[in-house]
Amino acid sequence: MKQIDKIYEYILVNSKEFTKEKLLKIKGFSADEVGAHLGVLRSNASRELNILCREKKIVKIRNRPVLYFDREQFMKKLNVTLNDDCEEIIEISEFISKASDNKQEDKSPFNSLIGYNISLKNQIEQAKAALLYPPNGLHTLIIGSTGVGKSLFANMMYEYYKRIKELPEDPPFIIFNCADYCNNPQLLLSHIFGHIKGAFTGAEKEKEGIVEKADGGILFLDEIHRLPPEGQEMVFYFMDTGNYNKLGETDRNRKATVLLIGATTEDPNSALLNTFIRRIPITINIPIFEERPINEKIELVQYLISKEAQRVNKTIKISSEVMKALIGSTTYGNVGQLKSNIQLVCAKGFFNCINTNKDIEINLALLPPNIKSGILTFGNETKDNTTMWNIMPSSITIQPDGNKTFLETDDYETPFNIYSIIENKTSLLQEEGMNDEEIKKFITTDINIHLKKFYDRFKNDGNRREGLLKIVDKDIVEFAEEIKILAENKLSKKLNERFIYATSLHFSALFNRIKKNTVSFDANIDLSISSESKEYEVAKDIHKLIEKKFNISIPNVEIEYLALLLNSIQESSRQERVGIVVAAHGSSVATSMVGIAKKLFDADNILGVDMPLEMTPSDILEIVIEKVKLVNEGKGVLLLVDMGSLNSFSDVITEKTNIITKSVDMVSTPLVLEAVRKCSVCDTDLNSVYSYLLTDFRGYTNGITAQLPQEKKQKERAIITICSTGKGAAIKLKELVENVTNDISSEDINIISLGLNDLTKSISEISEENNILAIIGITNPDMGIPFISIDQLIEGTGENILISIIKGKTIQPIVSTEKPKIIFKNLCIQTLDEFMTFLNPKKIYSLLDEFVNLIENLLHINFENPVKLRIMFHVACALERMVLNNGLVYDEDKLNFNKRTIESLKEASLIFKNALSINLTEDELYYIDDIIRLDSVQVEESTKS
After folding, report:
1. Which of 15, 580, 712, 937 could pair covalently with 606 via S-S, beta carbons 3.0-4.6 A apart?
2. Whole-number Å distance between alpha carbons of 124 and 286
3. Left if phi > 0, otherwise alpha if psi is -120 to 50, otherwise beta: which for 726?
4. Which fold has domain 462-568?
5. Are the C-beta atoms of 97 and 107 separated by less than 8 Å?
């Protein structure tokens, strides 16, 4: 090492050990000191030090004698900036006041948080107090819902901690998620405290724990509620004493100084030991997104979009309507959900301009329905506060800023670059010869696959409950929710949401039969449920609760029905899919096609079998059987084969394995890709994807695929409805389905109601005489037949699926723009029946429907079903007010109304004048206009005349 390098290393190492106070007192190192320490003549040391000053590596401080200090450390210790031409410091005392002033003006790391001076102000003050408390700060617990930014807040606490400590080296900041090892307490404690050699099987050497790594700094324990009780006890002992022991040691003779920050989504009082909570004096509650003021919500949207603009290096333009939709659709997932939604829409916008130099433009038409509907929520939240609407910019344009850095600390940062994925897969599909339309379909699907987990992991079923409440009394639904919790606790198993739908509908139908005296209390039906089972005991408890809560007598046979229901409906541990096995002759034909499918869709439910021509059919069969067993998830397996005896394997495999299989020959890459898309992405059942590939799919060009073999068409078509008993609720469900089938098909379709008893056997017997199109109800028997759940039927998507099945069309994953009308009509009439006093709901419905349709045509508006319902109910009540001569008076400013809209409403309202001799007043029309302006989603043509 050269002499000058040795001198610089000495200055640098010793400068790092200085604190601000030491620097102001000692000021630096003299040439004598440097020379003496390194064995260099003073004159030589002085010459080299001056060279280092000119190279801007160190600074010279005027003193007697002259002193030297590392330039970067000088600026860091005093928090000052030196000009490039500054080689010599006249007097260090000049920087004392500058350092003090800069310290006051210097922005706290917390100031980078959106809302630091409003919604997060109190939380930041708490954090500062905790970190400044002598001697080493106070342990802190951060609580808040998923996605509010607890991890980010903890990181800001660490940044502030570094600033106030002014240590020569940054203190450690160790992050540990307690959920990673929550099911293995021994391994969890080993990670936290470390272990010695031989502490447990596999502990071949001593290991350092995160407490040891965090010594002198901060340990952030995320999801701290997942610590087992013994882990909490060890942690709070360490918090009390600073002492700990590694796993396998008996004496707690190790010491560390660590500030603990915990984070949890749970209520600490129920999720943590009281002795543990008492040792955490500071609790910081991070507010949910809905509690943030509107200006912060807008700022969060702009910030997150700017991150995407920088990532993709393109300008992003976004309309105010999209801003409202993004804000309104952010509910249960908080800022994390907002971030995921923005990543999704930006990825779709990027795909639209992938091969151009155009900016990314995001409008309402680009948004998926679940995000687009957020504009309704935004309108509901802000319709009484015009100030909030005025804050919203008409549009924003964000350009990429390469100099801007973003702190990534949360779980919502995608572990992949979605934009690179889009570019790479677009190129791959173009090379495969796929046209632009098909590429768009694949890429759109792919975007949704990659981002689905970020959006759906916090999703709830709140919207579906609203549909259920249209046909079942609220107290019945709430009671079903109560007994679901009761049953889960007593049976120690998870019941899915379908249990609530099943019991709600069943109780509703049962109570109606009791009121009409059509229930037999002497019925004695054997449902093959043991009276000794846990389900039977829970069913007896529920039976008593029903009689007590609703003050009615219930037949004892209901105990068997409830026991059967409890035994049948459980929460599936995962989403089952149809498995796929591709088998083809040649060294790598099948595996090559499978490889492309896996690369495009990240699919794990497909396997390939390459078969040399010399391999015997029996050997091939054994290999295919093993592959079928591996990919089977309970919904059957689709075989895609090339030729010969392979196509006859299906029946043999089903007989040997009891796994339902279907076989399609003339396999090709497009056929494999479409099968994976249907089975993995669209969650299509085996029969549907089999029929689709044989009859409807024609490849991605004008090629010809396999034709459907001739089958007998003698069986009658049937649809099966399933509820717990096959009576009451199942019959009510049957009536709903009959309304659909009668409306769209002139051919008779048998609607058959079944209970849960011997369900598989009953369906098998029915299938011998009938071609079962679909099963609708509370549980999926997994027999390879299309299944529609009750909740799907109620919320509307199920009706579209049923219509597609009856018409023989492919069940598409994208929701049809044609709204379900039959069940919508029934629900609407039933709801109107509860509100109307003077007018007949059945007769007025057609007028209301005609009124809404005319408004849509006149204003070029497309109402979603919830908005359509809202308008119809409001108008129905307005008509009755007209009958009573008690119309509403609109007392808001009328100058801002669109004349065209009011004129269109007047024209549409003539329907009621002609049919009922009822005139809607102008004030009532203003209220209708309010609903349209605030709640409807308008297509782009809506502003055109």
Report:
1. 580
2. 10
3. left
4. PTS-regulatory domain, PRD (1.10.1790)
5. no
Instruction: Write the CA distances from 139 to 217, 286, 330, integer angstroms.
Output: 12, 17, 32
Judge contact between 78 and 23, C-beta under 8 A.
Answer: yes
Looking at CATH, the fold of the domain delimited by 579-682 is given as Rossmann fold (3.40.50)
- CATH architecture of the domain with range 3-105: Orthogonal Bundle (1.10)
pLDDT digits (tens, 9 = 90+) for 723-772: 755 555 566 677 778 877 776 666 678 888 887 677 888 888 888 888 88
For residue 773, what are the β-bridge partners?
none
What does the block give as tokens for 596? 């492309």
176 with 193: CB under 8 angstroms? no
**Per-residue pLDDT reduced to its tens digit, 389-404:** 556 677 788 887 654 5
Report the alpha-carbon distance of residue 231 to residue 182 in Å, rounded: 10
- Cβ contact 677:442 at 8 Å: yes
- Structural class in CATH, domain 109-287: alpha beta
**Is the overall model pTM greater than 0.85, yes or no?**
no
- How far, in Å, CA of 213 to CA of 172, rounded? 7
Q: What is the second-level CATH architecture of the domain 716-807?
A: 3-Layer(aba) Sandwich (3.40)
d(CA 314, CA 268): 44
Is the C-alpha dihedral spanning 504, 509, 510, 514 positive or negative? positive
Using left for φ > 0, alpha for ψ between -120 and 50, and beta otherwise, residue 776 falls in beta
pLDDT value at residue 61: 83
For residue range 246-280, list pLDDT tens digits in order.
888 877 788 999 999 999 988 888 778 887 888 88
- What amino acid is encoded at 682 in this protein? C
State both tokens at 531.
């009276």
Give the C-alpha separation, 485 to 474, whole Å. 17
**Lookup: tokens for 667:** 């396999």
Reference 918, options 888, 875, 889; nearest CA is 875
Q: What CA–CA distance (Å, rounded) separates 551 from 54?
A: 94
Q: For residue 262, what are the β-bridge partners?
A: 141, 221
Cα–Cα separations (whole angstroms), residue 134 to 39, 124, 162: 43, 18, 15
**Helix H or strand E encompassing 261:** strand 259-264
The single residue listed with the structure tokens 């606490």 is 157
